[in-house]
């Protein structure tokens, strides 16, 4: 592929934007090439500045579940912008999306909109601290919950990719309040809870981990967290920024039948525009200002264009058979890639939950951060570059998730499997 214009733009961007990108995970740094600069997208495809097209499994890191530029979403946004881009005042659209979220997600009785997943988790943490009067929080190594200070401790996603799980700039005095347990290991949670009795405000977890690659919850893990939190008066937060409306319409909590106290959302509920949300029990949510004392606010929160994109996207997800079809496609492509690796005699540990999947370059099973960290990231980088060359755009790190969308056709998926087969053979 000819990528000269992307490389030229990257050189230009490096002069005005730190690292040339506005979010570190975009930089292709760990895979040894320059990032592609994207000009447009349509359905399952993205097109770079050099005119190359790629089958896209990043989907803007999750939101584009109905495909890029879905005509209904585009039309609704165009219509909405004619009425004004932002008012900073309540609109009916906010009630519509709030009611749709409440109807969809079993545990959410009230919800507040924000503009990113980071804001959603940061606010949910503050709310649980305010509600319980406790300072400590508990998260899992390898899980990523956005970039607020309390959550940049042993974090996944870009921090895992770049090997800096704890960011400089987070005061040690604050980080000490973040306790870190091991994913899929209830004993590690019980030990921390016992050692910090009565001081933990919340447990925050990705119910399907997607920021250390895709790591499904083992049987009993989420149930166990629910039990511990109930016994200890700890607020259980499911961070469903990625899994919400992705692994089922009602998210991982619907798929696995566990009820958290608070849920954070983002990505899909904004249909590609900046949105996050957090919601849960009325008793907890009514502690938020101005109903209660816990402060949280946003100039663009509930933005009418973003609400519109979210509403239209959720409507499309409600179409009969949407998730069944998505499951079928995802199974086909994930199993096809796993088989391609096996046929080539290449060790790959494949995971999938709904339309989230991952191939770990590991002979051993991956079920938490320590096992994920053992993957052969060099081999992944070679595979990533090979797939790009074949016209398949994957997330540029072993520690991310691939997303299948409704617009991926059978032909796209077959082409992807054939590309993977070729890449595994040459590894
Ligand atoms: N939580 C999870 C589970 C996420 O995957 C992400 C983003 N990948 C976030 C929170 C942060 O969301 P945002 O990037 O919109 O701030």
From TrEMBL:
Gene Ontology terms, MF aspect: glutamate-1-semialdehyde 2,1-aminomutase activity; pyridoxal phosphate binding; transaminase activity
Domain of life: Bacteria
Keyword Nucleus: no
Pathway(s) per entry: Porphyrin-containing compound metabolism; protoporphyrin-IX biosynthesis; 5-aminolevulinate from L-glutamyl-tRNA(Glu): step 2/2
Residues recorded as bearing N6-(pyridoxal phosphate)lysine in the entry: 267
Gene3D superfamilies according to UniProt: Aspartate Aminotransferase, domain 1, Type I PLP-dependent aspartate aminotransferase-like (Major domain)
NCBIfam families recorded: hemL, PRK00062.1
Protein name: Glutamate-1-semialdehyde 2,1-aminomutase
Source organism (scientific name): Geomonas terrae
